[in-house]
Amino acid sequence: MARSIPPQYPHIEERPLYWRIAMELLGALRDGSFPPGRRLPGERRLAQQYGVSRETVRQALDVLRRDGLVETDRRGSHAALPGTPVSTPTCLAFPLGAGTAEPGTVNSASVSWEPPPPEHAEALGLAPHRPTLVHRYEAAGADGGGRRTAATSFSAVALAEVAELARYRERVGAPGTPQLRRAYDWMRRAGLTLHHHAAITRLPDAPSMRVTRRVHDQYARPLEITDLLVDTRRGALVYEFTLPAAG
C-alpha cells in the first residue's frame, strides 16, 4: 500500500492484514475521500479495490466501527468522523468542469507526482522539471461525446500548508480513485483565503475551448492552476458568481 501510516501506528508490516486495510480506510476518512455521512463502497467493491477477501474488509470495518469512525445500518456503512456533512458543491468546485457533467457521463481521475507542464511550472513558481502533485480528470458521455479533460498542478505552498494534499504524494499509485473534490475545503481549513481567476480561450481550428483557472491565497501565493478543455459541440460551460451587497 502506498499510503503513509501515522506515527502512532509503528511497525505496520507486523500487524494483521485487516488492520492495515483499516488504516488505509482511516486515511481515506480523514482526508475527505469519504466525507461525514457519505456511504462507503460495499464490502465486495472494497475487497476488489484493496485486493483482499471480503472477510478481511469486514474485519477492517469492525476495527473502525469499534472506534466510532464508521457506523453501519441496514443500508450499509458510512463515515462518522466529525465534520461538515456532504453538501452541494459551491461554484468554486474541484476539479474544474466536474460540476457541469451531464447525466450518464463516464468520469475518471488520477494523481501523479511528476514535473507539470512548463506553463504550469511558471505560474506556480516551480523550477523547470521539479515534480509536484498533478491531478487529471476526464469526463465524456456514454457515446464519447461532450468530452472534457482537466489537468491541475499544485504549488509547493499548497503541499506545504495543506496536510491532506501532501498525503497524496504517498498515495500516488495506490488502489482506488483519488478523491480531491474537497481540495478547496482543505485549503480554507488550513487558513488560506482563496482568490481565483479564470480565462476562457477558443481554440483555433477545433470545436473546443480552454478554461484556465489560477488560484492564489491572501498573500498572492499561487496554490494551483488548472487547464480544462471542453468539447463545445455538446453541453454548456456555466459560470456562477455572487455580487457583493450594495454598500
TrEMBL record:
This protein's record includes keyword Isomerase: no
Pfam families to which the protein is assigned, alphabetical: GntR
Keyword terms of this UniProt record: DNA-binding, Transcription, Transcription regulation
PROSITE patterns (alphabetical): HTH_GNTR (PS50949)
HTH gntR-type domain span: 15-89
Protein name (record): GntR family transcriptional regulator
Organism for this UniProt entry: Streptomyces galbus
